[in-house]
Design a protein that fits this description.
This is EF-hand domain-containing protein. The protein is an alpha+beta fold and about 675 residues long. It has 23 helices and 18 strands. The relative contact order is 0.08.
Length: about 675
């Protein structure tokens, strides 16, 4: 098809050159508008004419010459000639009435200047076949609406720096949100996530990064049900952000969905109701009165340039224009890219040329002109016609302001980045301030716990492991120190004053002690006031040493959060040390009694019993002897033999022998229990 077109064009050019050699200028009088009517007719600075209809007339004239050359009619050949006639510019001919009047007066043979083919005009002059199909359309300013933050989150464009920055900031911001959520859900259940705000948020942020990057070290994993749900949701979100960053840093292939075709806001005649509508040709008012009278009066402009300049300035909202003219002005400078056409054309109509009708009869040349126009509009010259159309009306219905939109989107994206940076800085500032104050409170609470442990005498003992037996001994010493009244119990005021003296903050201390006593199971609110006995005070100090103050939501100086087995081992060790201490005390009493008995010759009888007694290490001596501890008295002689402390020697020896035999029988079981306890403590 294209080859045939080229051959036809070559033949036409050759024919034109051959005729041009004869130099017969056409006698046809062809007129157009002197002021021009773009894109149909445009007047150059030198007075020449160019435009869509000028190009069409040049091609149609060639077809007309070729047809007349095949006719045996010298009159027509002389009229048409072989050289195009000069175009006559007539001022005011842009109005169809003026052109038709010139044809009626026979001052012109052919007239064109963007004339519609209407029944009224056809009754005055002979029209050519339609050269163009057009209609009315609405032209509005091509406003680019900046995308919203949600659009920026859902779509990005290929420019690397802002896109990568946006994805990175989004990842950091959402990571902080996840860190707070996982800390709230996991800190009380997961021993690997710190209960302290600052360190807990750091653990959550670290967990967010490992999950989003799909590293999955496994050192921090959620334990609770809702923590697992939150982590699963975050993995998808964080992985999406990571993919956005990776795409920007590697291939840069990110779909620019924001650069979609412009969608006009005015697409139907009724959309113009209430808007300021302008036009530059009188027929538009009659048309709108028929189509949509509610639009009202149109603002009439004297020229197309004035109308489009007013639209660009915002003086009007819409221009009601011819579809072909609108396509031209919406794609050419200085208006190109500033306007957008709305909807499909309405009130369709056709463009064409008008030919003289002398004495109301058809001219003999008219049939040849009619067929020449048909040759141009169809057949092998269809491609030539498309070239003419593409040259002057190149507007694309999907035209988009790529450069302008990219600038606006980039500005919007930078603004969104600035907002996210501001939010991120605010979040970091709040996190740092909160961490600072929480850690300051933490240090204050740690200081109180350490002061209490130091006061109990166990602050640095046993490599940092709290010895409960030492705690009880220290609590006994503190009790005696705090009990200024020496009445056997500590009142609340005595405890608070004493703790304040070693460095405690007295504010809220009374309520803190009441809470500690309640949690220990030894409430202070007795019938006669708030006080604690020695055993109650020991129990409370033991609980604080193991777990820290209950009001301190941290590890404190104790061992809150340690396994229950470890606390049980501490209790067993304390029981063993207490039992050993009591045994040592009783052994001292037995050694003293035996020393007294040595003077009266019974030492040899009890030496074996003493050796057996020294093997007892886990229970108080009284538990095995079942005797009331005798008072220390000097040896005396009386009925029944020598007596010590009111007990005769014979009775003492008999009791010792019997108890020693029972002790030797029970000793293997006791040693087995001691070994089990020692293994558990290890």
């Amino acid at each position: 098809m294209l080859g045939k077109t080229r051959l036809a064009l070559a033949g036409l050019i050759s024919l034109s050159l051959a005729m041009g050699a004869r130099g017969v200028v056409s006698k046809l009088r062809v007129g157009t508008c002197l002021e021009g009517y773009a894109p149909m007719v445009i007047t150059g600075a030198d007075g020449s004419f160019y435009g869509l209809e000028v190009d069409q007339w040049s091609q149609i004239y060639r077809q007309l010459v070729a047809r007349v050359a095949r006719e045996n009619d010298d009159i027509l050949r002389d009229l048409v000639g072989d050289t195009p006639p000069p175009l006559v510019g007539i001022r005011g001919l842009s109005t169809p009435e003026a052109g038709l009047r010139a044809l009626q007066e026979e001052s012109l043979d052919i007239a064109f200047c963007g004339y519609y083919l209407t029944p009224e005009r056809v009754s005055i002059a002979d029209p050519t076949p339609p050269l163009l199909s057009s209609g009315y359309t609405m032209v509005t300013n091509a406003k680019v609406t900046p995308p919203t933050d949600m659009q920026l989150m859902a779509n990005t464009f290929p420019k690397f720096p802002p896109n990568a920055m946006f994805a990175f900031l989004l990842l950091i911001l959402l990571s902080f949100v996840y860190a707070h959520g996982i800390w709230l859900l996991e800190s009380s259940k997961n021993s690997k996530i710190s209960v302290t705000y600052g360190w807990g948020i750091f653990d959550g942020f670290y967990m967010a990064m490992t999950a989003a990057s799909t590293s999955g070290y496994g050192d921090l994993v959620p334990q609770s049900f809702f923590g697992k749900i939150l982590t699963g949701t975050w993995i998808l979100t964080g992985f999406y952000c990571m993919c956005m960053i990776a795409a920007s840093l590697t291939t840069g292939i990110v779909a620019d969905k924001l650069d979609s075709p412009l969608v006009p806001t005015v697409t139907k005649p009724e959309d113009m109701i209430g808007l300021r509508v302008g036009t530059y040709f009188s027929a538009a008012q009659r048309t709108i009165d028929i189509i949509e009278p509610r639009v009202g009066r149109l603002i009439q402009y004297s020229s197309v340039q004035w109308a489009y300049s007013s639209l660009a300035r915002g003086d009007i909202d819409v221009i009601l224009d011819d579809f072909m003219n609108a396509k031209y002005f919406a794609s050419k400078q200085p208006y190109g890219g500033k306007f957008v056409l709305g909807g499909d054309p309405f009130m369709p109509t056709d463009y064409g040329f008008y030919f003289i009708r002398p004495n109301a009869t058809t001219h003999s040349l008219y049939p040849h002109l009619y067929r020449a126009v048909l040759d141009y509009s169809r057949g092998e010259l269809t491609e030539v016609r498309k070239l003419h159309m593409g040259k002057w009306v190149t507007y694309d219905s999907q035209f988009s302001l790529s450069a302008e939109k990219n600038r606006i989107i980039e500005r919007t994206l930078h603004a969104a980045n600035n907002k996210m940076i501001a939010v991120l800085i605010s979040v970091l500032f709040v996190a740092v301030v909160t961490t600072f104050f929480s850690m300051r409170e933490e240090r204050a609470k740690d200081k109180e716990n350490k002061m209490l442990l130091n006061a109990l005498g166990v602050g640095g003992s046993h490599g940092g492991v709290v010895d409960i037996y030492s705690v009880r001994l220290g609590a006994t010493a503190l009790f005696e120190q705090f009990d200024v009244n020496h009445d056997g119990h500590l009142e609340l005021s005595e405890i608070t004053d004493a703790l304040e003296s070693i460095g405690f903050n007295k504010v809220g201390l009374a309520e803190k002690l009441k809470k500690e006593a309640f949690l220990t199971g030894t409430p202070m609110d007795k019938e006669d006031g708030y006080w604690l006995s020695l055993s109650d005070f020991q129990s409370m100090m033991q609980r604080i040493a193991l777990e820290g103050f209950a009001s301190n939501d941290n590890h404190g100086g104790g061992f809150r959060g340690a396994p229950a087995e470890l606390q049980h081992i501490f209790l067993i060790l304390a029981d063993l040390r207490e039992s050993s201490q009591q045994i040592e005390n009783r052994m001292d009493q037995v050694q003293s009694a035996l020393q007294d008995l040595n003077d009266i010759g019974v030492m040899s009888r009890v030496r074996e019993a003493v050796r057996a007694l020294k093997g007892i290490e886990t229970r108080p001596l009284a538990k095995y002897f079942g005797l009331r501890e005798p008072q220390r008295q000097p040896p005396s002689a009386g009925e029944g033999g020598v007596s010590v402390g009111g007990v005769t020697v014979d009775a003492a020896i008999e009791s010792i022998n019997s108890q020693a035999q029972r002790t030797q029988a029970a000793q293997p079981n006791l040693r087995s229990r001691n070994n089990n306890s020692a293994a558990g403590a290890g």
